[in-house]
Amino acid sequence: MSARSRQTGSDSPGAVLSARRAGILLFSGESDLGSHWARLVAAEKDIDGAAIEWIRPGVTNEDWLLLSPSQVLPTLADREVVLYPARLVAEYLDERYPHPPLLPVEPAGRARVRMALHQLESVLYPLAEQGLSTDNARSAQRSRKLLREQLLGLARVFPTRGFFMGSDLSCVDCAWAPLLWRLPSLGIPLDSVESMGPYAEKLFSRGAFQRSLSSVERSLAA
Predict the structure, then answer these.
(1) CA dist., res. 68 & res. 70, Å (int)
(2) What residues does the GST C-terminal domain cover (predicted)?
(3) CA gyration radius for the chain?
(4) 130 alpha carbon, distance to own chain's centre
(5) Distance between CA atoms of residues 128 and 134, nearest Å
(6) In sequence order, which residues have a C-beta less than 8 Å from that of residue 102 and are 6 or more positions away?
């Protein structure tokens, strides 16, 4: 992925439209789980001309507000297309840039992927985000405990070989990787769940994953 960061809050909407004509433009948070997922999919696709616009807390970005009035991250702009949230961005990128494929061709396989993604989006991601929040220490602690219990219940699903849905990397692996990367910061060691640690290390060792990390996310490994 050829990503370039821009200073937030300085480009005009006209500049955004120009960037959209030149290639995809992804508005991304530096620590947002969904943003990391979308950046990882884009990195796996190694998209020429892809650009990242970082959205930082407390900094107004008028281009992003223009394209995403509800302020959803990530937001993708590609010519006439503007869409969010992360799963729609991931599926759009897979259809727009079909190689390497991250979704199965057959309907049954795609349905299984979407079921797995639904659990991540609706249960695990919210618990992780709440666990990382500094707004309410008691609520964050409770979310971390629930997340750990959820992961223990999923111990059998982590693959000992290959990837989550079989022998090939899929959108599900791209969604798991950002969550697994944050677990040590949530006080959940990767080896606390059987097979989770080796699976996580396999994902972290990929070049695309390393390229997808923001500076904030990279610091989580320290």
Answers:
(1) 5
(2) 106-222
(3) 17
(4) 16
(5) 12
(6) 41, 44, 90, 94, 169, 170, 171, 174
Supply the pTM of this predicted model: 0.89
**Of all helices (H) and strands (E), which one includes residue 35?**
helix 33-45
Residues with Cβ within 8 Å of 8's Cβ and at least 6 positions away in sequence, in order, are 53, 54, 55, 56, 59, 61
- How far is it, in rounded angstroms, from Cα 158 to Cα 42? 24
Q: What distance in Å separates the CA atoms of residue 69 and residue 140, rounded to the nearest whole number?
A: 28
β-pairing verdict for 75-78 and 81-83: antiparallel
CA–CA distance, 111 with 201 (Å, rounded to integer): 27
**46-72 pLDDT per residue, tens:** 998 899 999 999 999 999 999 999 999
Q: Around Cβ 174, how many Cβ atoms within 10 Å?
A: 31
Tell me, what amino acid is at 16?
Answer: V
Q: Is the dihedral of CA 141, 86, 57, 6 positive or negative?
A: positive
* Distance (Å, whole) CA 108 – CA 95: 17
Q: Is 162 left (phi over 0), alpha (psi -120 to 50) or beta?
A: left
Polymer length of the chain: 222
Which tens digits make up the pLDDT trace of 132-170?
Answer: 988 889 999 999 999 999 999 998 889 988 999 999 999
